TrEMBL record:
This is PilZ domain-containing protein. InterPro entries: PilZ_domain (IPR009875). One of its GO terms (molecular function) is cyclic-di-GMP binding. Residues 85-191 form the PilZ domain. It comes from Pengzhenrongella frigida. Pfam families: PilZ. Gene3D superfamilies: predicted glycosyltransferase like domains.
Amino acid sequence: MLEGSPSVVIVGEAEVARGEVSVDAGLSLSIRLAEVLGDLPAPGDEVVVRTFEAIRGRREYVVTVESVNQEMLVVTDIELISAFQQRAIVRVETDLPVTLVYEMIGDELVDAEIPIQGRMLDLSATGFSLFCSTALPEAYRFGFHFSTDFDEMVLVADAIRSEDVPRGHRYGCRFVGTTQREADALHRYVLSEQIAQRRRTDGL
């Protein structure tokens, strides 16, 4: 939940308002404005909201303005575009099978002609490392199914870095178009896996 998080509203490159998230309704956010620094956006405008969360650090969302006045901004269509923490993005080592069943053709995500098998080597809310015995095309954007105890998701990612390793290739992958719900689900999964791994290490 984002309620209570200090927030900055950004239009283009300019900060136009500062405040605090007063209501996180899941599909919308209400931001109580404490300081207006420039021209406020109009309903229907797409802007960036930057939040500062105690646990998850600084996060940026692209949103659509639903309503606005000098005291309150309500936004919808919330999509996480970046996440930062004061130290490192929370990441957990994994060894999960993954099948790349979708690929981006133009602007459309379609069924891959030949699904590619791989293994997820680590995971954070913003990306993961992927091992494949098959080389991926340059600038490859793909989709796959990911399940946790509580969520079923189709995630989309870009392969942005590659490294030749024994028996295949290791790729650094960044999630694309992750919704707030998906990012929160990934973050919960990472934290729960960290706790479980720590307990196994400690023999609990």
